[in-house]
Amino acid sequence: MLHTISLNKLRKELEPTKALYEWIHTEYVNKVIDYAKLPKSEQEEIRKKLETIALVMPSHSLLHLLDDTGFSDTIGSGTFAVELLSPAERGYVYHMLFDIYDLIIKPYQSNGESVIAQKASDEGIGPKIFKLGKEGLVEECINGTPFDMICLHYSPAYCLDFLGGVSGEIYGRMHRNGFTYSRNKFYHAAEGPRHIILSEQGPRIIDFGVAVLSDKNEDFIAETDKVSAFFNKIFPEEIGLRIMQSFMRSYNKFR
């Protein structure tokens, strides 16, 4: 649900729970370790604090990211619309809408994500980066069709070469720039390549939280092997083979 607000109003609304938010990130870390050993009265006090902060935690996290990235200075006193996307492994992700553009602001999921996201931005593989902070980033919102929706809703006969070519380009360019999407997890077995978006500007990867910096050829080979395993799992053998042939042609071109 979209919520329109100004930065000044957001700060004012959150001021009563500011100390509680800071407590969550400092004292609570130590309290939770020894929670079972605490007196019942202290356990109840902690529970009430958590119930209170849970209602405003998304708003506090947004304000923290805006300040961390310095994007709060860019917004100034103007109003904006914000939408909380589904919380994932990385934490809260926000979709911010302004008059002529919209952005994504989110916390880092891994230590190397800022470096990889900037590389991807410079290469045109991922969203354009506007701000990098110590704990999160601000990037353009990529609009288009998720790659896994193409896999599910288009007849393979019409898009075999396209599927292979698009994924081959993305991963060839990634490997050329010294990173892999993940050495351990390439495509989600059930959902497919959900982070590839087919936009008007071409294919883009919208999330690098599990990406890994690497200059090892064996990592790149392992990743392409996982591509093959994925396509062979969701398509009949001959179709999966044709897609991989297209993938490798495109991959070698851009690698």
Q: Can you give a write-up of this model?
A:
With 255 residues, this protein is of the alpha+beta class. The chain folds into two domains: 3-107, no CATH class; 144-254, Transferase(Phosphotransferase) domain 1 (Transferase(Phosphotransferase), domain 1), CATH 1.10.510.10. It contains ten helices and eleven strands. It has a six-stranded antiparallel sheet with strand order 1-2-3-4-6-5, with helices on both faces. A three-stranded antiparallel sheet has the order 7-9-10. A two-stranded antiparallel ribbon has the order 8-11. Strand 5 (129-132) and strand 6 (136-140) form a beta hairpin. It is globular. Residues 186-192 have low confidence and may be disordered.
Query: Distance between termini?
Result: 41 Å
* Main structural class: alpha+beta
Strand order of the largest sheet: 1-2-3-4-6-5
Query: Tell me, what is the CATH class of the largest domain?
Result: Mainly Alpha
Mean pLDDT: 84
What profile does the largest beta sheet have?
A: 6 strands, antiparallel
Low-confidence stretches: 186-192
Number of helices: 10
Beta-strand portion reads 15-25%
| Annotated CATH architecture of the largest domain | Orthogonal Bundle
Task: Identify the CATH homologous superfamily of the largest domain.
Answer: Transferase(Phosphotransferase) domain 1
